[in-house]
Specification:
Elements (H helix, E strand, L loop, with lengths): L5 E5 L6 H13 L3 H6 L1 E5 L2 H13 L5 E4 L16 H6 L4 E4 L2 H6 L4 H13 L3 E6 L3 H5 L3 H12 L5 H4 L3 E4 L13 H19 L1 H6 L1 E5 L4 H8 L6 E4 L6 H8 L5
Parallel strand pairs: 1-2, 1-8, 2-3, 3-4, 4-5, 5-6, 6-7, 7-8
Helix pairs in contact: 1-3, 1-13, 6-8, 8-10
The structure holds 2-phosphoglycolic acid.
């Protein structure tokens, strides 16, 4: 079964809600029915812009999906400053990024926390984008596969076969995020294939073939087509280049590049 490519723009801590509306309007101006047909397109703004963009998507019946960058694993409670999965689900959020390397490295999220989030997102009818990836030192030490394999299996603990196809994995080598350094298409594909192998071990080959594995790390219009030409890369999680409508639209239209 062919996997529908998923292009997701992770805006990180950029764009207030007014700028966010403008960016989405500019983005859809560049896209047409054929693009939406071929590729699932998702924007992942900061929490403060979710409501504005949801209203825009709804009102103009836009064919793009909404994602959130993080969430708490509990549904409600005394967790000052946190946002719960049901709050996101109410805003028609379809995807939630879990365990982005910035969450792991800057905010100290470990595999267990990430796994709780993955399960909470699924339990509330949304899809987790589980991020995995090794640091430069880990790669140099020959540890990339072990680290990524551990993050993958720990992140998916308790996820059952029926839920598995709702999950998206984003392989993002930490050394390639925001650095301008991209993994070579061959290295990126090898790691995405390794991830799929791990998914097959966990859920069986049939299910693994249905799960989308994205590459992330300095994806831009100039390198996306080559990455997407590889067998096991099913889309991209895009940071910097998703902040410019022209660039993100070009990435979403990679088949025309
Ligand atoms: P980048 O970020 O495209 O700016 O490297 C990717 C990410 O962090 O998801």
């Amino acid at each position: 079964m062919a996997r529908t490519p998923l292009m997701a723009g992770n805006w990180k801590m950029h764009k207030d809600h007014l700028e966010a509306i403008q960016l989405v309007q500019q983005l859809v101006y560049h896209l047409d029915a054929d693009d939406y047909q071929r590729t699932e397109i998702v924007v992942i703004p900061p929490f403060t812009a979710l409501r504005s963009i949801q209203t825009l998507i709804d009102g103009d019946r836009l064919d793009i999906g909404l994602g959130a960058q993080n969430c708490h694993y509990e549904a409600a409670g005394a967790y000052t400053g946190e946002i719960s999965p049901p709050m996101l689900a109410k805003l028609a959020v379809r995807y939630v990024v879990c365990g982005h390397s910035e969450r792991r490295h800057v905010f100290g999220e470990d595999n267990e926390t990430v796994n709780r989030k993955v399960r909470a997102v699924l339990a509330h009818g949304m899809r987790p984008i589980l991020c995995v990836g090794e640091t430069d030192e880990q790669r140099e030490a020959g540890d990339a596969e072990r680290i990524v394999g551990d993050q993958l299996q720990a992140g998916l603990e308790g996820v059952d076969d029926a839920q598995a196809t709702e999950v998206v994995i984003a392989y993002e080598p930490v050394w390639a995020i925001g650095t301008g350094k991209t993994a070579t298409p061959t290295d990126a594909n090898d790691m995405c294939a390794f991830v799929r192998g791990g998914l097959a071990e966990r859920f069986g080959e049939d299910v693994a073939q249905q799960i989308r594995v994205q590459y992330g790390g300095s994806v831009k219009p100039g390198n996306v087509a080559e990455l997407m030409g590889r067998s096991d890369i099913d889309g991209a999680l895009v940071g910097g280049a998703s902040l410019t409508a022209d660039d993100f639209a070009a990435i979403c239209r990679y088949h025309r590049l």
